[in-house]
Amino acid sequence: MPNANQIPNGSKAMGYYLIAIVVLVLDQISKYYFEFAFEEGDTVSVIEPVLNWTLAYNRGAAFSFLADQAGWQKWFFAILGLAVSGFIIAYLRKVPKSASVLSLGLAMVLGGAIGNVIDRVLHGHVIDFIHVHYADVWHYPIFNIADIGICVGMMLVVYDMLFLEKKRTLGQNL
Predict the structure, then answer these.
(1) Where are the beta strands (DSSP E) in 16-155?
(2) Range of 79's domain?
(3) Known catalytic residue: 136?
(4) pLDDT tens digits for range 45-102
(5) Has 128 been annotated as catalytic?
(6) How many distinct structural domains can be found in the chain?
(7) Which one of 40, 81, 131, 168 has the fewest CB atoms closer than 10 angstroms to its CB?
């Protein structure tokens, strides 16, 4: 008889797919707003001196990695994002029901990955607008809701991996 902590999500994965859709919709609505309310490079201070809305286009990956290339990176990152999304969609059905932190993290990554893939395919770049900085001393790369979903989701996946997975495989209640 299988360990009760190892029973797969199965149809329960639908709830996690809905979480991914919420991340995706919030991401796309926010990008739509900034794309039409701002011109590239426009900045509005939100919380001085640490947060601005700044419209920026990222033609590369995280931290503009490969942004200076001739355009092949658009399709490379779009295909990579679709492959990761396809894997997560299939894997969420197989994740144990007891692994809710892992499933939530994967759902957030899924919503963010699809949000950025949509940008790459429709616009040729990712629309970013959240600019965290400290005055003119330090600037974090400008990002978006999809990036938040991906980063927070990956933190949850790593947390699960480091602190919860072993308990689950040993059959302990979480």
Answers:
(1) 43-47, 51-58, 126-134, 138-139
(2) 10-166
(3) no
(4) 999 999 999 999 998 766 555 555 556 777 888 999 999 999 999 999 999 999 999 9
(5) yes
(6) 1
(7) 40
